[in-house]
Amino acid sequence: MTRHQKRSTKRRTSLVLLTALGTVAGGLLVGAVPAGAATWTTLAAGVAYRQYDLSAAAGTTHVHVLSVDLTNTHVRLGLLYPGKVASRATVSQLATAQKAVAGVNGDFFNISEVQHPGVAATGASVGPAITNGAALKGAVPDAQRFGPELPPGTSTKNVVGVSTDGRARLDSLALNGSVSTLGRRLPLGGLNQYALAENSIGAYTSDWGSVSRARATCGTDTDRAAPCSTSTYEVTLKKGVVVSASATPGSGAIAAGTTVLVGREAGAQRLRRFVKGQRVAVRYGLTAASQRAYRFALGGYPVLSGGQSLAGLDARTSAVRTAVGISSGGQRVLLFAVDGAPAYRKGLTIAEVAKALKSLGATEGFSLDGGGSTTLVARAPGATKVTVRNHPSGGAERPVPNGIGVFTQ
Q1: Rounded Cα–Cα distance for residues 133 and 165 (Å)
Q2: Cα–Cα distance measured from residue 81 to residue 127, given in angstroms and rounded to the nearest whole number
Q3: Element holding 286 (H helix, E strand)
């Protein structure tokens, strides 16, 4: 083979790879093809990628899909997050730092606080979260949620995750916890949450981060924009003993072995009875409606169940979306992201997302945060870092609190 032939062969090989995988965010869409003509490209054993055009009510859009085979013992899904609940980073940063081969953005989150001047937005996610089998946070009250209106019959407690049997599932996780002292047991109303129910007590651990806990006492059980409570109290426990108290929620990193209790209204009144040196036991866990244990889970809301779209899904508002599909009895997961390039930015309605997941073979479907958050990343074979495969609608990746990572070994 001549040197000219070798160079031509290399150019053809590079062109085939670009056509199969597309380009990173900000470039032209390469190889955009109809769904029926799209092919899967293997990124790693058990992990494949596909992109294609999809007809929708608002016009043609473009979607990116990762297929993950959970029967492959070398592949797993896990939570991508920055190490703290009240913290954000881009999906590519999270995936690269945690050495994921691919991933998408996750739950809706506390993105702004224009209704509460002077109160810092926490960046914390809405729903429950589990990482490596451990409870990370609970769900905020439904009325305190950020994101589009929930479909009928769903709540902020809904999750998608992988249970300890290795299968992906849709479920619901409720916080079960207590604060016990001097023979009395008080209910625990929150865990590392940016919003607490009225009259409740929430616990904040080293998993929370350094952001102010003041947001937890703002809004009500019916109105996220309602004023912050004027009756609050905070107690700090170190190794189960009260060491300090304050009339207002504080900020700053929480050390390992330390728990901060934040109360509002009746919850604040109960905490005011605590005194320095008093022993207090705080216990908590996330209990699944199915009674299963989970390796990882994060929030959003279901759109497809038993192969049927949920009743009442929005069929009017088109937008850039991120979603998860589950097929083969939980053994196969589809991570789905709409492209945010100007030509496709009108996107899909939630009803169309459910339909698209079903067309890919999913029987269960789950919507994650969309719009400027929608990001799908993947690492090409032999590469050391992931690249963004869709075009984020804001022109660049938005920092997010969590996501779903695809890990291989």
Answers
A1: 12
A2: 14
A3: strand 281-288
How far the first Cα of the chain sits from its last, in Å, is 38
Provide DSSP, 124-181. -BSS-EEETTEEEE-PPPGGG--SSPPPTT--TTEEEEEETTS-EEEEEEEEEEEEEE
pLDDT of 409 reads 86
Torsion, CA 381, CA 322, CA 173, CA 223, rounded to 10 = 150
Nearest to 49 by CA among 34, 25, 65: 65
User: What are 54's strand-pairing partners?
Assistant: 61
Burial class of residue 152, CB neighbours in 10 A (0-12, 13-18, 19+): exposed
Q: What are phi and psi of 258, to 5 degrees?
A: -115, 140
Residue pair 66/378 in contact (Cβ under 8 Å)? The answer is yes
Find where tokens 């494949």 sit. Answer: 48
pLDDT digits (tens, 9 = 90+) for 157-189: 999 999 999 999 999 999 999 999 999 999 999
For residue 212, how many other CB atoms are within 10 A of its CB?
A: 16
Name the token pair of 74.
Answer: 């070398």
In angstroms, the CA 47 to CA 64 distance is: 13
- Residues 357-371 have pLDDT tens digits of 999 999 999 999 999
Contacts of 154-157 with C-beta under 8 Å, sequence gap 24+, read 154/301, 154/302, 154/310, 156/126, 156/127, 156/299, 157/127, 157/128, 157/299
CB of 375 within 8 A of CB of 398?
Answer: yes
Characterize the bridge pairing of strands 332-338 and 322-327: antiparallel
> Beta partners for 186?
179
What's the pLDDT tens digit per position in 15-55?
Answer: 333 333 333 343 334 445 566 556 999 999 999 999 999 99
Cβ(158)–Cβ(299) below 8 Å: yes
Q: Is there a contact between 390 and 373 (Cβ–Cβ < 8 Å)?
A: no
Joined together, the tokens standing for residue 157 give: 């407690």
Encode 338-354 in three state secondary structure.
ECCCCCCCCCECHHHHH
Quick one: which of 273, 270, 299 has its CA closest to 286?
Answer: 299
How many other C-beta atoms lie within 10 A of the C-beta of residue 273? 12
